[in-house]
Design the sequence.
């Protein structure tokens, strides 16, 4: 029986890898070691999952040059070699167990998701957000209180506005517009002053129309304070007014 029992033997014991003497020594050790008993209960499930997997066969023992001394030298060498082999085996086992636990845990998690009929999660969206394809303008619009505008020729949309220290911030939603067009969002002050808040081009497919149902979301800013703005306009580069939103 080995004179030394180590805490790392708990994994080997759980998988039945200890020889008879070491197994008996470790069982005696378990009686007085609550840490090993706790770890053994955790590893029991992994042992059941890995049960039946055959051992990995090595390429045989290395060739060892025996010393030229007497019997005591040979015995000493064999003891040192056995201890070294055990340390190597234990180190390999610990690494293997870490990988096994990781793979088993990951496999069980993925299996549960697939069994439930759910697709594996895929990273989407802007800025690394998981499970959303909203950009900053759309997110601001969705979380705000939209003011519906009045459009022409089937154009619809609205604005979410907020007062800033530097002026006015606005997020626009626009649908029912086909291109090619160049447009601008303009703030119109109560004094009649007009300021361009943002501009964009509309591709031929358009936004929020059959074949291209996704609306356009844009945001921009005006130096005019919100309290001094009368309304907002979406106009084309040709001067046609597409949408009017009251402040």
Sequence:
């Amino acid at each position: 029986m080995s004179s030394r029992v180590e805490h790392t033997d708990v994994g080997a014991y759980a998988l039945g890898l200890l020889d008879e003497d070491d197994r008996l020594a470790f069982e005696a050790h378990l009686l007085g070691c609550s840490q090993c008993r706790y770890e053994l209960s955790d590893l029991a499930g992994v042992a059941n999952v890995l049960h039946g997997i055959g051992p990995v066969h090595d390429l045989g023992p290395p060739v060892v040059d025996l010393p030229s001394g007497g019997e005591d030298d040979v015995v000493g060498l064999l003891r040192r070699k056995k201890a070294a082999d055990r340390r190597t085996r234990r180190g390999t086992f610990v690494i293997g167990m870490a990988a096994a636990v990781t793979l088993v845990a990951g496999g069980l998690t993925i299996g549960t998701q697939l069994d439930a009929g759910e697709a594996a999660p895929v990273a989407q969206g802007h800025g690394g957000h998981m499970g959303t394809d909203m950009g900053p303008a759309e997110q601001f619009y969705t979380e705000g209180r939209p003011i519906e505008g009045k459009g022409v020729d089937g154009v619809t949309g609205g604005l979410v506005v907020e007062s800033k220290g530097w002026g006015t911030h606005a997020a626009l939603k626009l649908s029912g517009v086909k291109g090619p067009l160049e447009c601008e969002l303009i703030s119109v002050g109560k004094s009649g002053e007009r300021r361009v808040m943002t501009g964009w081009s509309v591709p031929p497919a358009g936004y929020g129309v059959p074949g291209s149902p996704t609306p356009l979301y844009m945001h921009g800013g005006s130096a005019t304070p919100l309290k001094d703005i009368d309304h907002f306009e979406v106009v084309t580069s040709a001067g046609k007014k597409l949408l009017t939103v009251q402040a």
Observations:
- The longest strand covers residues 156-164.
- The first helix runs from residue 9 to 14.
- The chain has five helices and nine strands.
